[in-house]
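I have been asked to look over a protein record a colleague put together. This is what I was given:
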Amino acid sequence: MLLLCSTEVNFHYFKILFFKDCVYIESRRPNTPYFICSIQDFKLVRTIFTSPPSPFPHPSKRDHLLMNVKWYYRQSEVPDSVYQHLVQDRHNENDSGRELVITDPVIKNRELFISDYVDTYHAAALRGKCNISHFSDIFAAREFKARVDSFFYILGYNPETRRLNSTQGEIRVGPSHQAKLPDLQPFPSPDGDTVTQHEELVWMPGVNDCDLLMYLRAARSMAAFAGMCDGGSTEDGCVAASRDDTTLNALNTLHESNYDAGKALQRLVKKPVPKLIEKCWTEDEVKRFIKGLRQYGKNFFRIRKELLPNKETGELITFYYYWKKTPEAASSRAHRRHRRQAVFRRIKTRTASTPVNTPSRPPSSEFLDLSSASEDDFDSEDSEQELKGYACRHCFTTSTPYPRDLPGAIPPPMSAAHQLQAMHAQSAELQRLAMEQQWLHGHPHMHGGHLPSQEDYYSRLKKEGDKQL
């Protein structure tokens, strides 16, 4: 309870404030109306002076009375975009808002929005008491009477999310709470033709193997005759008969003929050999394809988008695997850039012009990109050429007497540096690191052979140590 004093001429009025009462709070900003809050509780901060010490301390004038209040937001304190959505919903739900009490500007300024935001103020900031009524909806607010220091609220406001919400559960009915359904699409007629994205059947098993073999021999014979007529030599006929496209074309024709070999052969007489892939591409398209490979690499989606929009991505991939085997691809292939790898490094050999007393320069750290699993012969040739002039970074060996591909090849003996390092290894971790440096840093790839197991390595290491002793 708190006594609030107000002075009018020579009279003093006292109002008793209790918990949950609504009051005005002074605003420190000029030209701003009082804040409206509801009192939640009071807290007295006491400053006690006892001189001399006494079991019954006396309060002093420095005591402070604080209060925790819950905020009410005026219409002007709510963002305009949030309030306009509320006005629009009210107009849509009640015939453009003609019968709403909120249309009265006096009552409109009396609407508040409650919040859960709690703050602490000094009791000296109190400037008066007011009354706030709560209504369930805007229609019930018709009973509100605009008296002095009277307000009402219907909704709550969350300042963090900047949203208005109801203070009690409700069924959300209205245009703003309804989903926008698309137009109904009628079901297609079962008699009509419908386009589907399902897989297409291209082969059905069940054909006799002997009949299929005889059919393929006849199809290849017709392809060989057509190729010999076009090229003028028997070699051209053999090439046309041995192509995969010829076999695939024969199988597709057999499937389209409902696996009737006679009908399929009659259709193959008209077209025994499918159109070659190089004849499906014009000279200009081939030039643009090569240009795309140089600019974008094997990014066929980018090549199709930028240079060949009239081709499908699958056609580009098919043509690439045909084109890479042609002599033109060998001359057009760009030189591969080297990347750093901790496998080999170049060893500077001493020449006749190099002084004897010149201190040896440490090996260069420029490592080579060794290509593996190359798809063509050009990559393997480049790898062999680039491998020259490099040596093992541990034993500095540039050649090996052991064939690389010989199964079961035994690795060469360890160098003195590796033996010394292994002998001084005092733990399993150091021994593991020593084995990795000897066998895993490109050494087997240089000398050939396979990686030894851990047990074989330890037994061999022990034998080498016994020899040194």
Remarks:
- The longest helix spans residues 209-231.
- The chain has a mean pLDDT of 71.
